[in-house]
Write a structure and sequence with these properties.
It is a single chain. The chain is built from eleven helices and 14 strands. The chain is of the alpha+beta class and about 375 residues long. β8 and β9 (about 235-240) form a beta hairpin. The two termini are about 25 Å apart.
């Protein structure tokens, strides 16, 4: 998608009111995307869309958990379904991007690892604000539907700006307090069927006034599936590897320090049963995550804090050091074992105090221009 075509939609009101406005405003693309999502389930996993919904809601009580721990999020999804005139169950399942990585291969009886996103976090230096960045890698059928949603916080006078597609609550985002969040999927970590789905955690954590407040929420909340959270505010940044049950802080900690991540755990050892060291059915390592991590490591190694400006980070996230497993993923199929994947957006959050800025390319950054957004 040409970033010049990226639109911001302001959605006002309480959760259900916001949802209805979202659904009514974007009714046609929501209906189109739900149909394309069903096609992708059948083409990518070989799972009939109706069977997927039946199994999804039978296997994990996510809806009950949302009602108990994130009722505002569930109300907003219900409002979107009402406004768009679409099946509520389908729209709710559509939100669960990370949980789909967990369940779709199980339903299809496939042996594969969900891999999405390359991330960087850079602690604030003397003359440079905190920065977190992410190549958001998702299914290519979403390309052309990227949008920004701007709306009020539920618990304060702040505002939230979230990257999304029609019908979804959010995929990542920042708020007017200067807090921003993104993640990497870590499907090798132990899941928790009673945990909170990640799309809802995104909406909850974007209410945070600070990184400290967000960290407390992440620590206290059981997660549905594993991930590496990448978060920051003007005072600092953090990566937290989180299974459904445990969390481990990965870094960085000191001024000017750098951390980077892809899609395999680097510190957390709360393995899913299939990935436990003593498992006799342990899948072979997926090459993409290791080769992307190597690319980030090589390009970041030796760089000083002063060198890590926005343009340098754009270049690092545009890397295509391996044709089959690049950091900036342009779609297609490699000759070995899996699809190359697709970078739906490159996001660089520059967390200036009082004026946070979001540099975004709505497509693979090696071939997509950037634009800058804020709350002005």
């Amino acid at each position: 998608m040409d970033t010049n075509l990226l639109k911001t939609f302001r959605i006002e009101g309480g959760p259900r009111e916001r949802g209805r406005a979202h659904g009514e405003l974007l009714r046609e693309p929501i209906q189109t995307l739900l149909e394309a999502w069903g096609d992708n389930l059948e083409r990518g996993y070989g799972v009939d869309r109706r069977r997927y919904l039946d199994l999804f809601f039978r296997c994990a009580p996510y809806e009950r958990t949302l009602g108990e721990r994130a009722p505002n999020v569930l109300a907003e999804v219900d409002g979107i379904a009402e406004g768009a005139g679409v099946d509520r169950r389908a729209l709710l399942a559509f939100q669960h991007v990370n949980e789909e990585f967990e369940w779709a291969p199980v339903f299809a009886r496939m042996d594969c690892v969900g891999e999405a996103c390359s991330t960087v976090a850079i602690a604030a230096a003397k003359d440079r604000p905190s920065i977190i960045a992410q190549n958001l890698d998702l299914a290519q059928f979403l390309d052309g539907h990227q949008i920004l949603l701007r709306g009020p916080c539920d618990n304060s006078d702040g505002e939230i700006l979230a990257l999304s597609v029609p019908g979804m609550i959010s995929l990542n985002g920042m708020n007017s307090f200067g807090f921003a969040v993104c993640d990497n999927s870590l499907t090798q970590l132990r899941a928790n069927p009673d945990g909170v789905p990640l799309f809802a955690l995104y909406r909850l954590v974007l209410e945070s006034r600070s990184l400290r407040q967000a960290l407390a929420l992440i620590e206290a909340t059981p997660h549905a599936v594993g991930c590496n959270w990448v978060m920051g505010d003007p005072d600092g940044v953090a990566m937290i590897e989180r299974s459904g049950w445990e969390s481990q802080h990965y870094g960085p900690s000191r001024s000017g320090d750098i951390a980077f991540h892809t899609n395999h755990p680097l510190i957390c050892r709360d393995w899913a049963p299939a990935f436990a060291p003593n498992s006799t059915t342990r899948p072979r390592p997926a090459r993409s995550t290791y080769l992307r991590l190597a690319s980030l490591h090589q390009r970041l190694q030796g760089l000083s804090a002063e060198a890590l400006r926005i343009e340098a980070i754009k270049n690092i996230l545009s890397a295509r050091d391996d044709a089959d497993y690049p950091v900036s993923r342009g779609g297609g199929v490699n000759l070995e074992d899996q699809q190359i994947g697709f970078t739906l957006a490159c996001n660089i959050f520059e967390l200036r105090r009082g004026d946070p800025r979001w540099h975004i390319a709505s497509g693979p950054p090696h071939c997509t221009a950037f634009r800058e957004f804020g709350f002005d």
